[in-house]
Amino acid sequence: MLKPQPGTGSAAVLANIPTGGSFRADEMSYDPTDQVVLVANDAEGFLTFLHAAGASSSVAANFYYSDNAVGKAATVSGHATAGGGIEQPVWDPRSDLFYQAVPAGASAGFIDVFTPAGKLVKTYPVPGCDGGPTGLALGRNATFMGACGNGGAVVETGSGHVRRIVSGVGGADEIWFNPGDGNFYFAISGGPSLGVVNGDNDHVVTVLSGHGGHSVAAYAGNNHIFQPESNGSGIAVYASS
Q1: 106 to each of 42, 82, 132, 138, 159, how far by Cα in Å?
Q2: What are the backbone angles phi and psi of residue 43, rounded to the nearest 5°?
Q3: Measured CA distances, 200 to 54, 97, 178, 186, 204 (Å)
Q4: CA distance 4 to 184
Q5: 38: nearest Cα among 118, 147, 125
Q6: pTM of the predicted structure, to 2 decimals
Q7: Would you say the C-alpha torsion 160, 38, 34, 117 has a positive or negative sign?
Q8: pLDDT by residue (tens digit) across 38-82?
Q9: Could you tell me which CATH class the domain 126-239 is placed in?
Q10: Helix or strand or coil: residue 86?
Q11: Could you tell me what percentage of the chain is helix, strand and coil, using 3-state DSSP and rounding each to the nearest 5?
Q12: Residue 54 three-state SS
């Protein structure tokens, strides 16, 4: 176990950029080519695209779903969330597009596809993904992995075709792909805590028990996997074998 330690350095706040909501911004993704950050305001139903370069950081665009809770006109008429909020986005360097997970609630979940300028260009339905997709990560075989209540959805990046639902790793929030070992890591709250799926053949490698947590990250340099524990005991560190 790795316990959090107080920082020893210092940092300066370059900018404080309001996204226009009253509740927290939830999950984010970064596009280093265009230097744009996509921020999802989950509870309020809108997205913010930020210029991320230096001290001049500012809002580039917003996208408001038609059921947003901040009283804004829909950016695309009639285009609502699925009723489950807005979750993890990911940027794809091959297409230079953002892919935004919009999980199922009252209706089926989907993935929205945006340009770095914030324009909606297509929507991929994700049939069979119960309650999801929540987490979304980009693998190396032109596929995404989406987190569902009943497993992981393998989705082709170009077409949006759902190849399969990988059972055994359901209930995750965020997903991380580690290029170092080629695995997807599923952050599952409660026990079990961490699901591992081989990114080449979409088979479950293992499911580890523990306290679990909503987020996960991997460092490809040594294939260590980091997951904050939901009971506040610290950060669990796993080594990929």
Answers
A1: 16, 6, 11, 26, 25
A2: -70, -15
A3: 37, 23, 12, 16, 11
A4: 24
A5: 118
A6: 0.90
A7: positive
A8: 999 988 999 999 998 766 678 899 999 999 999 999 999 999 999
A9: mainly beta
A10: coil
A11: 0, 45, 55
A12: helix
Compute the distance between CA of residue 30 and CA of residue 39 in angstroms, rounded to an integer.
9
239, containing H or E segment: strand 235-239
Q: What is the pLDDT of residues 137-173, one digit of tens each?
A: 999 889 999 999 999 999 999 999 999 999 999 999 9
Angle 199-146-126 from CA coordinates, rounded to 5°: 125
Torsion of CA 145, 137, 140, 177, to 10 degrees: -100
Rounded CA separation 93/175 (Å):
18
Question: Would you list the domain boundaries of the chain?
Answer: 126-239
* End-to-end alpha carbon distance in the chain: 17
**What are the residues whose beta carbons fall under 8 Å from the beta carbon of 60, sequence distance 6 or more?**
36, 49, 50, 51, 117, 118
Please compute, for residue 221, the number of CA atoms within 13 A of its CA located in the half-sphere on the CB side: 1
Sequence-ordered list of residues with C-beta below 8 angstroms from that of 165, at least 6 positions apart, any chain:
128, 129, 148, 150, 151, 152, 153, 154
